[in-house]
Amino acid sequence: MNASTATLTRDSLRMKIKVQQVRLGDEEYRVISPFRPLKNGALYTYKSDQYNMYVDRADGRRIGALWLLAARSPRSLVYLPMRTPAKEFGGVHDDETPLDLVLAHRALQFRPSRWKKLRTHIRAGNASREIRTARLPEGDLPADTCEINYAAPSDPKNRNLLHQHVHAETLFLTGSTKAFREAAPHIFTVTKEGPPAAATELYISGGCNYHVCRSIYHWPDLDAHGWEQIHVEFCPPWSR
Predict the structure, then answer these.
(1) Which one, of 52, 78, 77, lies nearest residue 63 by Cα?
(2) What would the DSSP string read from start to end of 89-145?
(3) How far apart, in whole angstroms, are the C-alpha atoms of residue 28 and residue 125?
(4) CA distance 237 to 240
(5) What is the DSSP letter of 154?
(6) Ramachandran area for residue 71 (φ above 0: left; ψ -120 to 50: alpha; else beta)
(7) If both were cysteines, with which of 9, 35, 59, 72 could 41 make a disulfide (CB 3.0 to 4.6 Å apart)?
(8) How many other C-beta atoms can be found within 10 angstroms of the C-beta atom of residue 179?
(9) What is the pLDDT of residues 12-68, one digit of tens each?
C-alpha cells in the first residue's frame, strides 16, 4: 500500500447519501444515511467501559465526512448502520457487542426512546428514499498536516461534548456543531496515518508492534463524569 493513498483530498468530502422523511405521530424526522453500506467500518462497546470503532481508509473517511455532515445538519439524524458480529471480524474481542451509530445535533432534541420505531419505518420495503450527493466545503476538512489538540476541557460540563446514550443496539451521540467538528479530525487522522504504517509494520490488533488509533477524549477521570471513551482504530486487514 503506497503511503500517498493516505492523502486527504476534496473527494474525501463528497459522497452519495440517502435522505428519508419519516413521520411518527405529529413529528416528522429527516434521516441521512450512507447510500452504500459501510463494509469496512464497525462499532462495538467493550465491557461497557468504552466504545471501539474500527475503520479502513475509505470507509473511515466516509464516516468522518458524515460526522462533519452532522455538524451542518441540525435538523437531521445521521444514521450509520455499523453492527458487525464480532465472530465475523477477527480484530475484536468476543465480548464486544456490536452497535449502530446515530449522530444527532442537540437542536433536534431527539429522544433515543423513539429510535426503534423510527428505524422500523426507515427499513420498511416501501419507505421512500431520495438519493443525493453531499458535498461539504473544503474548509470543513482538517488539514493534511493538522495536529490534533489533545488538551482536555477544563470543565467536564463543556457544552461542546458529545453526549452518549445507548438504546435499541444503537449509540447516540448528541452535541453541538462544534462538538462534531472537533471530533471528526480524530477519525481522519487514523485514516491518514494507518495506510503508510500498515505498509511497513507488523499488525497486531490492540498490540504494541503496530496500532494506529485515536481516542476522542483525553480526561484522566473520564468515567467519573459519566462519559465512556470513544476509541477509533485503523484496521489494515480490511485494506488488503
Answers:
(1) 78
(2) -TTS-TTEEE-EEEEEEGGG---GGGHHHHHHHHH-TT---EEEEEE--GGGSPPTT
(3) 19
(4) 6
(5) S
(6) alpha
(7) 59
(8) 23
(9) 688 999 999 999 989 999 999 999 999 889 999 977 678 999 998 999 999 999 999
Which pLDDT belongs to residue 145?
Answer: 38
Distances 28 to 21, 24, 31, 33, 75 between C-alpha atoms, Å: 7, 6, 10, 16, 10
Q: Count Cβ atoms within 10 A of the Cβ of residue 202 and give its class: 0-12 exposed, 13-18 middle, 19 or more buried.
A: exposed
Q: What is the pLDDT of residue 118?
A: 96
Q: Are 54 and 173 in contact (CB under 8 A)?
A: no
Amino acid letter at 80?
Answer: L
Cell numbers found for residue 118: 423510527
Antiparallel, parallel or unpaired: β 41-46 and 50-55: antiparallel
Residue 211 or 2, more confident: 211
Query: What pLDDT was estimated at residue 150?
Result: 46
Q: Please choose, from the candidates 30, 28, 26, 52, the residue with its C-alpha nearest in 3D space to the C-alpha of residue 41.
A: 52
- Per-residue pLDDT at 70 exceeds 80: yes
What's the pLDDT band for 152 if we cut at 50, 70, 90?
A: very low
User: How many helices (H) does the chain have, and how many strands (E)?
Assistant: 3, 12
